[in-house]
């Protein structure tokens, strides 16, 4: 049985929170990079299953690019640039988290 869009949004929110915690650690630890990378894959998987009516409510979020990044991370992991992953974690994840909180409603800060 497929999970609801709300459940997928909660998955994204949890992964964003984890990434924020990992990204606050000092650079250079390969475990941090791997942890962020796998959480980005989780986010991409969840986004793939969101109904378009949900994602259309936040047009400023590059939903298609999130899925493409997931595919890159999952299938071409040796070609993954550390700088892109870390920039995504520090710059893009807070924006995504805020958008997901808005989609989930006021109880999540939206």
UniProtKB/TrEMBL annotation:
InterPro entries tied to this protein: HepT-like (IPR008201), HepT_RNase_toxin (IPR051813)
Name recorded for this polypeptide: DUF86 domain-containing protein
UniProt KW Nuclease keyword: yes
GO cellular component, one term: toxin-antitoxin complex
Name of a matching Pfam family: HepT-like
Coiled coil location: none
Domain of life: Bacteria
UniProt GO MF annotations: hydrolase activity; nucleotide binding; RNA nuclease activity
Lineage: Bacteria, Bacillati, Actinomycetota, Actinomycetes, Micrococcales
Species annotation: Agromyces bracchium
Alphabetical keyword list: Hydrolase, Nuclease, Nucleotide-binding, Phosphoprotein, Toxin-antitoxin system
Cytoplasm as UniProt keyword: no
């Amino acid at each position: 049985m497929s999970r609801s869009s709300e459940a997928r949004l909660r998955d994204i929110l949890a992964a964003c929170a984890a990434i924020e915690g990992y990204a606050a650690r000092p650079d250079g630890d390969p475990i941090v990079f791997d942890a962020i990378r796998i959480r980005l894959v989780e986010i991409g998987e969840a986004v793939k299953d969101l109904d378009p009516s949900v994602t259309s409510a936040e047009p400023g979020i590059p939903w298609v690019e999130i899925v493409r990044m997931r595919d890159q991370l999952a299938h071409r992991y040796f070609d993954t640039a550390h700088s892109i992953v870390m920039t995504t974690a520090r710059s893009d994840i807070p924006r995504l988290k805020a958008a997901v909180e808005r989609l989930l409603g006021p109880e999540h800060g939206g």
